[in-house]
Amino acid sequence: MSLFRNIVFTAVVAGLLSGMLMTVMQSFSTVPLILQAETYENAGGEEAGHSHDAVSAAGTAAPTADHHHDEEAWAPADGFERFIYTASADVLAAIGFALVAIAIAEALGGFGGWRGGLLFGIAGFLTVSLAPGLGLPPELPGMPAADLGPRQVWWVSTAICTAAGLGLLAYTRSALLAALAIVLLVAPHLVGAPLPPTHETAVPIELYARFVNAVYATNLIFWAVLGAIAGLLREKFRSGEQVSLTAERELAAR
Questions:
Q1: Residues 90, 27, 74, CA angle at the centre, nearest 5°?
Q2: Are 37 and 139 spatial neighbours (Cβ–Cβ below 8 Å)?
Q3: What is the rounded average pLDDT of the residues 177-193?
Q4: Which residue has the higher pLDDT, 61 or 210?
């Protein structure tokens, strides 16, 4: 029971700190670019029914539910309200990511300290952000997108293949498995991500390039901090768990 409690506590602390850091970074990097893109979107008089990807909690390129624009659609007000909703989403997503990372690390023998956690964090960035983003890069409001269903299938498939490929490369020594890992890493991109029917948009390419760079930069920092904190805390708790286990064995032997 103490193991489960320590894992959850580690995930909550790592998620809270890295999620809040992400929110602060987004406030100075991606959010101003999103607001600027919305002015082009509104000025372009987009047709009813057009949809685009909302920025996910951690700023990744993951496809989310279609967002339809109309005059009655609710959206958080700019300023403090938007910040609170963004922070809540970032923290909840970060805690979820931390739980998954810790569970995988425990199954593979643990982080081994903050350095191992940092490597896990970088692997998380490659799996969740960079690899899927090669086919489905982060999108600004007003940009065209393919149908949601095919995008979600491709994104999830790419993340799973990337995670499996990285795991095989890191934890196996077989040349055959290494070749399989390369195939898993490359296969989704050979298949290709779903493309929008048109690439026409009112959003300037310079603004879009800045946004993509900002998303990847903030995501890399987010995942590195998440992994390092999780690895550091988990190692401290693991030491305490081993001491408690040794003491219990000594008492049982008496």
A1: 70
A2: no
A3: 96
A4: 210
What's residue 79's pLDDT? 75
Q: Which two tokens stand for residue 152?
A: 């979600």
CB under 8 A, 24+ apart: contacts of 102-110: 102/7, 102/10, 102/11, 102/230, 102/234, 103/7, 105/230, 105/231, 105/234, 106/7, 108/167, 108/171, 110/234, 110/235, 110/238
Residue 248 CB partners (closer than 8 Å, separation 6+): none
Helix (H) or strand (E) holding 219: helix 205-253
Nearest partner of 49 among 151, 150, 145, 155, judged by Cα: 145
Mean confidence (pLDDT) of the chain: 85
3-state helix, strand, coil in the chain (%, to 5): 70, 0, 30
Amino acid at the residue 6? N
